[in-house]
Structure formats: C-alpha cells, structure tokens
Amino acid sequence: RAAECAVRRVGVFGGTHGNELSGVLLVRHWQENGAEIQRPGVEVKPFLANPRAVEKCTRYIDCDLNRVFDPDSLGRPVVEDIPYEVRRAQEINHIFGPKGSDDAYDLIFDLHNTTSNMGGTLILENSRDDFTIQMVHYIKNSLAPELCPVLLIEHPSLKYATTRSVAKHPLGKYQN
Predict the structure, then answer these.
(1) DSSP classification of residue 104
(2) Which residues of the chain have pLDDT under 50?
(3) Where would I find the Succinylglutamate desuccinylase/Aspartoacylase catalytic domain in this sequence (predicted)?
C-alpha cells in the first residue's frame, strides 16, 4: 500500500490569480534556483499558472482560472474565441493531468494571497483523503507554535473546479 501512496510528482503553483504575488515570487525564485525544493525520488515542478494575468497584475484575463477545471471547460473545443483561462486550464490539465487519471500529478500545492485576516491558512477539499490530511498535520506541526488554520471546503454534491483539483491530492495555501 505504501507504493500506492508514494508521491513522486509535485506541482507548486503560483499566479493562479495574477494579482496574488507571493506565489508568483516563490515560483519564479524556484524556477531559477529549485535546489531547495528538490528531493531524491520526487520531481517538484514550480509553475506559473496564469502568466498573462501575472503580466498585467490582475486576477484574471477573461474568467477565474480557479473555476474552470470542470469537465465541460476541460473538454471544450479550442476555437478562436475560447476564453484565455479555459485554454490555459486545458494546457495545465495536459501538463499535470489529465484530471482524475492515474497519470495526474500526485500533489498540486497552489499558493494564494488574500486580503482577509486569516493568516497562513491551508485549504483542504476532501476530508477523506488520508494523504492530504497527514500532510496538513505535518505542515501544522512544522509551523508550531505559529497557528495554521485549515479551511475545509468540502460539499457532498459539489465537484470542485480549482486549478489544484487536477492532482490526485490537491492542497491550497492562502496567506495575507
């Protein structure tokens, strides 16, 4: 069973929203010098999710990238007038997915900023994902005595269409 749960490929995303600069700066740093995030037996890929929005320092160009990883958007034909973020979601799904498949990246850690007074908060989408829960526990213990709240955004009838949902184990991090 341990081999089934092995994490071999990790994506670290910044810039899902182009005006959230902490993740952008970290991803750019790690793209230039990734030694500090590399580990033997694990491929860690820092990735700028929405480069056009980052370039304009705006949340998005046509629509919120963090809302278009649903089956309809991912399966949409690529035509001239397709929204930029839908096309980008398809590219991300091709690189890190396909979503829901055995070939998908094991983990995507998506870095965000917020203006809410919530400190450093982890965002969990599935309370039944043992691996992600153990990782959250590890992160919380590593940061102690600093607080690290966990926000569970699980709903029984909703299928999340977030950028990180392409991975087998999605996790978000919000920092104000």
Answers:
(1) S
(2) 1-3
(3) 8-169
Side by side, the strands of the sheet bearing 121-124 are 43-48, 9-14, 107-113, 169-175, 121-124, 150-152
Nearest to 40 by CA among 8, 68, 5: 8
Whole-angstrom distance, CA of residue 63 vs CA of residue 72: 15
d(CA 151, CA 112): 14
Helix spans in 13-50 (H)? 21-32
**Domain coordinates of the chain in residue numbers?**
47-104, 116-161
Query: Nearest 5 degrees, angle CA 145-CA 151-CA 109?
Result: 85
Kindly report the backbone phi and psi dihedral angles of residue 111, in degrees, each rounded to the nearest multiple of 5, phi listed first.
Answer: -95, 125
Residues in a beta bridge with 173: 111, 122
Tokens in use for 157?
């009838």
User: CA 139, CA 109: separation in Å to the nearest integer?
Assistant: 12
Torsion sign over Cα 119, 120, 125, 131: negative
Q: Write the DSSP assignment of 110-141 as a string of letters.
A: EEEE-SSS--SEEEES-TT-HHHHHHHHHHHH
What is the pTM for the complete model shown? Answer: 0.90
